[in-house]
Amino acid sequence: LTQDELKKIAAYKAVEFVESGMVLGLGTGSTAKFAVERIGELLRQGKLQNIVGVPTSKMTEEQAISLGIPLSDLDSHPVLDLAIDGADEVDPYLNLVKGRGGSLLREKMVEGVCRKFVVIVDESKLVKHLGGSGLAMPVEIVPFCWKFTAERLQSLFEDSGCVAKLRTCGENGYPFVTDNSNYIVDLYFKKDIGDLKAASDAILRLAGVVEHGMFLDMATTLIVAGKHGVTVKNK
Ligand code: DER
After folding, report:
1. Which sequence positions are flagged as catalytic?
2. Which residue's CA lies nearest to atom 11 of ligand 1?
3. pLDDT at residue 192 in the model
């Protein structure tokens, strides 16, 4: 099976948790896209009814509109029944790194108010420690004096060999701009970042930081699709 096929299997499994009448957080990324597609299909077939979706990005909003999924927002629905979204890393305690797709702020706002948050991944996303994949830990920051904020982020984690890099768009080198008109600084760690809660607090204390991509203690269910089948883990 290809990685895309595994993502689709995990996504379809998650949609089995969706019931008619639910208000749903709609995730962002290549895995969540399959879940949104499936929800649209079940609505069209009449197998699901009265669903309202709250999208976590402009991209997901466009996809949901194209599929005819009725949409709303947190102003009208401050508590959601269920959210389904992918992740970039998942540790054994269901803590996540998210935001390599750039939508971490809206994802955290939406998924933080869901009664159930189902994370869907292929097995390549499983790690022992967050930041352990050697890939980016995203932080959304305001554009104002972004270099200053990036340097402060890097020095917070000097002991972990952290390198902070502004995310840019392809070859033109322009900063990547989020749906909220902010920038993203990606943190790369050479060593374990240690206490995640302490790291989260330290990042959020910096003026200039909007939000980071560590989703600690938020996921309630993890669905992993791998070569040997699908596993569902509840917290
Ligand atoms: O950017 C994000 O937060 C995405 O949800 C990411 O965490 C997962 O994206 P993927 O399904 O394309 O790997």
Report:
1. 107
2. 31
3. 85
Q: What domains can be seen in the chain, in order of their start residue?
A: 3-123+216-227 (3.40.50.1360), 137-212 (3.30.70.260)
Res 164 pLDDT > 80: yes
Q: Whose CA is nearest to atom 7 of ligand 1?
A: 87
pLDDT per residue as tens digits for the range 98-148: 999 999 999 999 999 999 999 999 999 999 999 877 888 999 999 999 999
**Cβ-contact 24, 83 below 8 angstroms:** yes
Quote ipTM for the complex: 0.95
pTM for the full predicted model = 0.96
31 in ligand 1 pocket by Cβ < 6 Å?
Answer: yes
Place of tokens 């029944």: 81
Distance of alpha carbon 14 from alpha carbon 11, whole angstroms = 5
Quick one: which atom of ligand 1 is closest to the CA of 28? Answer: 5
- Cα–Cα distance between 178 and 24 in angstroms, integer? 22
